[in-house]
């Protein structure tokens, strides 16, 4: 796993130094990490500078409508495990989330891995 992360860290440095958008890198990372973790759906949420709103949401193995539905939402922790995990900084489960049901999933658990860039 260390080598895997090092490869993506180097790619991230290349993307940042070139000024290119990070979307493709984040999607590649989510897909590659998910391949290493069978049975797990990996998604990445990018927050606004204040850390209050989903600015971008990347879930390559869910329908695009799922990611699109998150963008622009204020993080309250009342609508799903992604926001709850971000607010608490702890793994979170939300079995009653309506948006997940729309994508035929019974419930999701979010395990936040937060990186703050200022």
Largest sheet: 2 strands, antiparallel
Q: Which blocks of ≥5 consecutive residues have pLDDT under 50? A: none
Computed Rg: 14 Å
Q: Helical residue percent? A: 40-55%
Let me know the average pLDDT. 79
**Bulk shape:** globular
State the order of secondary-structure elements, H for helix, E for strand: HHEEHHEHE
| Secondary-structure class | alpha+beta
Terminal-residue CA separation: 27 Å
| Count of alpha and pi helical runs | 5
Structure summary, number of beta strands: 4
Gist?
With 118 residues, the protein is an alpha+beta fold.
Protein model, in words:
It is globular and about 35 Å long. It has five helices and four strands. The chain is α+β, with helices and mostly antiparallel strands and 118 residues long. The chain has one domain. The relative contact order is 0.11. Strands 1-2 form a two-stranded antiparallel ribbon. The protein has a two-stranded antiparallel sheet with strand order 3-4.
Write the layout of secondary structure elements.
Elements: H1 2-18, H2 23-36, E1 44-47, E2 54-58, H3 64-70, H4 81-88, E3 92-94, H5 98-102, E4 108-110
Antiparallel strand pairs: 1-2, 3-4
Task: Throw out a few tags for this protein.
118 residues; alpha+beta; two-stranded antiparallel ribbon; 5 helices; 4 strands; 43% helix; globular
């Amino acid at each position: 796993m260390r080598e895997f992360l090092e490869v993506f860290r180097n790619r991230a440095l290349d993307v940042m130094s070139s000024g290119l958008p990070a979307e493709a890198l984040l999607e590649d990372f989510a897909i590659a990490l998910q391949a290493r973790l069978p049975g797990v759906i990996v998604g990445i949420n990018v927050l606004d500078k204040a850390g209050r709103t989903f600015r971008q949401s990347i879930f390559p193995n869910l329908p695009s409508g799922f990611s699109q539905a998150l963008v622009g939402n204020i993080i309250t922790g009342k609508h799903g495990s992604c926001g709850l995990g971000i607010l608490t900084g702890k793994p979170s489960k939300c079995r009653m989330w309506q948006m997940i049901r729309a994508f035929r999933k019974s419930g999701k658990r979010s395990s936040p891995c937060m990186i703050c860039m200022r």
